[in-house]
Amino acid sequence: MTAPAWSGGPISARARCVLAPNPGPMTLDGTNTWVLAESGAGCSVVIDPGPNDLGHLETVLAAATEADRRVGVILLTHRHSDHVAGAATFAAMAQAPIRATAPECRSPGAGGLAEGDRITVDGLDLQVLATPGHSSDSVCFLLPADRAVLTGDTILGRGTTVVAHPDGQLGAYLESLGRLQALTRGGVDTVYPGHGPVLPEAERVVDMYLTHRQERLEQVRAAVAAGVRGARAVVETVYADVDPELWWAAEWSVRAQLEYLGEPL
Questions:
Q1: Is the pLDDT confidence value at 4 over 80?
Q2: Which helix (H) or strand (E) holds 35?
Q3: What phi and psi values does residue 223 have, to the nearest 5 degrees?
Q4: How far apart are CA 63 and CA 74, in angstroms?
Q5: In what order do the strands lie in the sheet with 124-130?
Q6: What's the DSSP call for residue 39?
Q7: d(Cα 202, Cα 220) in Å, to the nearest integer?
């Protein structure tokens, strides 16, 4: 059965997803831009403005400024272009600063994002979780009021994510999934992802991600033990169930797996 299309929209009393018009094999239905604000608040938070598409950015701005609100801050989960290409344009439109882990993505003079940072905007409370792995600068945002975590590309709403080697590292990614697993066992029950639909069974999803990674790692280990050499050959062996048009992305993950195992790339 084909999964239903995701179109975003209101998710909770304080969270709305504005879906960007950039669907594709790597972006699923498109990039999820998140607009967060407490009821009656004068300021909102925008996470991952998405591509530099003026129509999309205008829709995000309208959602973020309804009820006479203004945008207090723009936050980025990581530096990949489908999440940040429109950030500078949107910051100018909203007259709001951009905060990000990567220095090149921040507004001049704006703060970075680091583990344990707490961001409070007009009653809205977010906590920063450093979750490198998909990329070296990836972060997630814990939204305690919704018992939710905004995961960027660390966890997707459909399928699994790519460890984008060499910037992405498998060891770091497994550690980040372990941190998210602990959160889901401590009260977080919903994932607001960077692509695809909201996931209401967070613990099951993180467990599945960890299981999938371990299974793929064992498959790569077995292929190497059988004499398969080189990332491309391993992709053709281990990822034979994946559309060959996506093997270039699978090769990123295989390179990360081979590096993790101490094998030649």
A1: no
A2: strand 32-36
A3: -65, -45
A4: 14
A5: 118-121, 124-130, 139-143, 148-152, 190-193
A6: T
A7: 27
pTM score: 0.96
Query: What percent of the chain stands above pLDDT 90?
Result: 95
- What is the distance between the alpha carbons of residues 47 and 34, in angstroms, rounded to a whole number? 5
Q: Which of 143, 195, 205, 191 is nearest to 7 (CA)?
A: 195
Q: Specify whether the CB–CB gap between 45 and 36 falls below 8 A.
A: yes
CA nearest neighbour of 197 among 162, 155, 161, 144:
155
Q: How far apart are CA 33 and CA 46, in angstroms?
A: 7
For the record, the structure tokens of 46 come out as: 């925008």
HEC secondary structure over 174-216 = HHHHHHHHHHHCCCCCEEEECECCCECCHHHHHHHHHHHHHHH
What is the model's pLDDT at position 3?
Answer: 56
- Mean pLDDT of the 220-249 span: 94
Residue 2 banded pLDDT, cuts 50, 70, 90 = very low
Q: Residue for token digits 């920063």?
A: 128
Distance CA 168, CA 138 (A): 9
Tell me how many degrees the CA angle 103-63-22 measures, rounded to the nearest 5: 65
Distance CA 4, CA 67 (A): 31
